Amino acid sequence: MKIALFIDDLEPSGVVVNALALSRTFAEQGWQVSLLAANASGALGSEVATAVRTVNLLNGPREPSRKRRMRRSVWPLRSYIKREQPQVLLSVGNQGHVAAALATMGLPTRLVVRVSNDLGHGRSHLSPRAYWNRAKFRFIARRSATMVFVSTQLLAAAAQRIPSIAAKGKVIANGVDAQMVRRRASEPTVLPWSTNDDEPTAVAVGRLVEQKNFSALIEALSIARRSMSIRLMIVGAGPLLQALRHQGEKLGLGPSALQIIPPVSNPLPLMAAADVLVLPSLWEGASNVLLEALALGRPIVASATAGSAAEVLDGGRYGVLVNPRDPHDIAKALLRQVSTNPVLPGHRSADYDQGAALSAYVRIVSDLTW
């Protein structure tokens, strides 16, 4: 059987991490697997399984805009599908679903979309952007054979906005390979600060975009430092880099208090060195970083609106949940989690085994091709 997975690029992100795991698992079934990327560059390119074929859809210099990359990918993606005739195309991240739906129109390839983020993006359902998102997902739903949602909350919210989604929607929660996470966390890395001092470190990982809410986290750091010397490392890149650096400077947070470093292919050693891991997102689907934090056993502070975070942390039993729009609440949680009495995740990662999630995808693809 032939199956293709569609992503934007191979830069570190939850979508790419899941695409790599899925493509490897499909190849282990003896299937012919291709990983189709609008731009096949990125720090995780070396992580693609040897049995998986990587296809670069857009030639030439990298287009800086992801939206334009997706638009330009439609015709090359359709050409690939017509030529190679995969039985299934799996669009792994929300940003690619419209392109995948357009590219498969009128062709026998079955489309599966993995819905990995909130359709409303944390905005009012009456906003113009919300209307546009609903229109897009109605189209995607009509074209899809199956829609996989990464949390029950996402499916429920989507079905409330677009009732027709309920008939095609399935829930497969993201999983984590805890043993692999711990093994890779022990790999050598370079830390921006000495680990020989007593100053606690908070770490956050993600794209520097509005969704990740790092501006509120930086403000919370400034508030927390009035009570304790605590520092923050953000691992990520994106359009808000300069704005976040400028905010830190205005708040008097020098390099000894705040570091924003570029993405790395393996952020796990940086996360393992943290005294607290922070997920301040305004919205999410099901955060891979949160699951990795569970596997590492580090104290966690997470936004109550970050997708499935409240469910994963069992309402605060395995980490502290906060209001992402209240920097004082985030600061209070940071201080709690670097204290001598933090809320720890214990063995919670065992409830999110990656093997079970990957097997569920194999069953969905197999059912579509019988």
TrEMBL record:
<dbReference type="InterPro" id="IPR028098">
    <property type="entry name" value="Glyco_trans_4-like_N"/>
</dbReference>
<keyword id="KW-0328">Glycosyltransferase</keyword>
<protein>
    <submittedName>
        <fullName>Glycosyltransferase</fullName>
    </submittedName>
</protein>
<dbReference type="GO" id="GO:0016757">
    <property type="term" value="F:glycosyltransferase activity"/>
</dbReference>
<feature type="domain" description="Glycosyltransferase subfamily 4-like N-terminal">
    <location>
        <begin position="13"/>
        <end position="178"/>
    </location>
</feature>
<keyword id="KW-0808">Transferase</keyword>
<dbReference type="Pfam" id="PF13692">
    <property type="entry name" value="Glyco_trans_1_4"/>
</dbReference>
<dbReference type="Pfam" id="PF13439">
    <property type="entry name" value="Glyco_transf_4"/>
</dbReference>
